[in-house]
Write a structure and sequence with these properties.
It is a single chain. By secondary structure, the chain is mostly helical. It has 15 helices and four strands. The chain has a two-stranded parallel sheet with strand order 1-2. The protein has a two-stranded parallel ribbon with strand order 3-4. Strand 3, helix 3 and strand 4 (118-126) form a beta-alpha-beta unit. The model is unreliable at 160-173 and 179-183 (pLDDT under 50).
């Protein structure tokens, strides 16, 4: 519970905040007292707050009549230590999973505690370190069961977007200053026409769709590791081989933009490198060399990552293109609607994975899959990501919106 700040966020989004009853538990006595004071300062009446000073993991609470909730909000200490004694395997919070979170990292123990106390139609949000997405062994088994049960709705990773906001200036200052007092409003149909008339917007949406399908195929890596490489713990290794290069590349994106004199060259060169990396993964995969597959996976991630840091700036340039060609500002609409490609691609990617696995004869829980399924796993994890990377590289080669804007500004100056 901490000081109760996260818990009190529920009040901000409730239509009837006076009817909310708050339950919270905190191990540290000083922080617990601070949470109680915080509740009173925010106008929470005594009958609507049930706070407890105790250990969340070692002793389950609450255990009375109200044990499940409409909403669970948690920000537990990252990778805290806990006892993880064998007796917890009989604890109803953890017994369904057959394993316990490791003693040195209680992240999944906190997650399962919160999930146990959540209603079947409730919503839970928990802040955890990125390691919970990649670590194997017992945590990998818990994570797989959560995914198979459909308990995970979304994962939001902050590191990429946190760094990318420092990458590149977006719209030119003179454009931002121009007509800033004039509020422009468009109908839904007019806004849609403006978006569709911008070929660069369509390219960005196409790129987003391909990226989401690409990610969905890489997520099939867990099956590739289990049934082809015969070692599911390798999934976390491959995940680190993707995420570490991404973080490194995001940190140096501003420098790359400056060195390569613009977004276009950086993004195109990055995806050429990324596609070459995926080709290397295919070759290494058929050679049976796991170390080479990991190395080429890292190369591919390193090449593709700068686009993630630059996409916000490319959208800004795309918005500027509409202004220069149509003399209309649609900045907010442009940013909102670029998520359309992400949503469409995410849906297609997940559905396509299910269709392909089903068509291949995948047998759930089987120790050995049929030959048709093994071939399909090669196609899904090796070939489709490379083909999608190649498609994105082609789109990148056509997405020189910076040059287009520069030419339009020069034409305007000449007139």
């Amino acid at each position: 519970m901490g000081s109760g700040s996260l818990l009190l966020n529920a009040k901000k989004y409730a239509t009837e905040p006076g009817y909310i009853k708050y339950y919270g538990q905190e191990l540290n006595t000083s922080t617990y007292n601070l949470a109680r004071m915080n509740m009173f300062l925010h106008g929470i009446t005594p009958e609507n707050q049930v706070l407890r000073n105790g250990d969340t993991l070692d002793g389950d609470w609450p255990t009375g009549e109200e044990t499940d909730f409409n909403m669970v909000l948690m920000n537990p200490p990252y990778s805290a230590k806990w006892s993880a004694t064998a007796g917890f395997l009989q604890d109803e919070r953890f017994s369904d999973y057959g394993v316990l979170a490791p003693k040195s990292k209680a992240d999944y123990a906190f997650l399962l505690h919160g999930l146990y106390h959540l209603k079947s139609n409730g919503t839970m949000a928990i802040v955890l370190p990125h390691g919970v997405l990649f670590r194997g062994a017992a945590e990998g088994k818990i994570r797989e069961k959560l995914l198979r049960a459909g308990n995970i709705y979304a994962v939001i990773g902050l590191i990429v977007n946190t760094i990318s906001v420092f990458s590149i200036k977006e719209l030119p200052e003179e454009e931002l200053a121009k007509d800033k007092d004039q509020e422009e409003k468009y109908s839904l149909i007019e806004a849609a026409k403006l978006l569709v008339s911008n070929k660069y917007y369509l390219m960005i949406c196409g790129t987003y769709v391909c990226q989401q399908i690409y990610t969905a195929m890489l997520n099939m890596g867990i099956y590739y590791m289990i049934y082809i490489l015969k070692n599911e713990d390798l999934y976390s290794v491959f995940s680190w081989a993707i995420n570490i290069p991404v973080i490194i590349a995001m940190c140096i994106t501003p420098m790359l933009v400056e060195r390569m004199k613009g977004l276009y060259r950086m993004n195109l060169a990055g995806y050429i490198l990324g596609t070459a990396g995926r080709v290397g993964v295919i070759i290494a995969g058929y050679m049976g060399s796991v170390p080479l597959m990991i190395a080429f996976t890292a190369v591919a991630a390193l090449g593709m990552a700068p686009w993630q840091g630059a996409m916000g700036a490319v959208v800004a340039s795309c918005s500027e293109y509409t202004y220069l060609t149509k003399h209309k500002h649609i900045d907010g609409t442009m940013y909102s609607c670029t998520s359309f490609g992400t949503k469409i691609g995410g849906g297609i990617g997940v559905a396509l994975c299910g269709w392909l696995l089903d068509a291949s004869g995948f047998v759930k829980e089987a120790a050995v899959q049929p030959a048709s399924c093994m071939k399909m796993l090669h196609i899904m994890y090796l070939w489709i990501p490379m083909i999608l990377s190649l498609v994105i590289t082609f789109i990148m080669s056509e997405m020189n919106v910076e040059a287009a804007n520069r030419r339009l500004r020069e034409q305007m100056e000449e007139c």
